[in-house]
Amino acid sequence: MIYLQTSAPAEIPSVWPLVERMIEDALDYGTSRLSGDDVYEFLCDGTMQLWTAWDEEGIKAFCLTEVCESPRAKWLSIFACAGENYERWVEYLSEIEAWARELNCDFVEMYARPGWKKVLTDYRTRHVQLEKRL
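Above: the chain sequence. Below: its structure as tokens.
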């Protein structure tokens, strides 16, 4: 059985060693706009949130979220979401979405690899992010 847990900022120092490699791998694969140290600081100060999916063997996946606001909207940004055997834990995204509703967020956004589009069929593609390394 898989369980979902969010970590309070005060818990990050003890949880970080269990997720650091997974997060840094995801950052390396992605656009590398943040380093692992940046994410750690944002988690410790509450700017970002860490959600982990785990079982008796350990952490299987993580999601990094950030609550964002503009004058016209409030939303939850899923900054990174990765792990093994996604079919065992992807259903827990609904709990993260429920948390966003409790915060009165208008929507959830996710920047993700194209493969997530096939899995998260209730999310729609609004834009495509194009990137060119210089």
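DSSP finds four helices and five strands in the chain.
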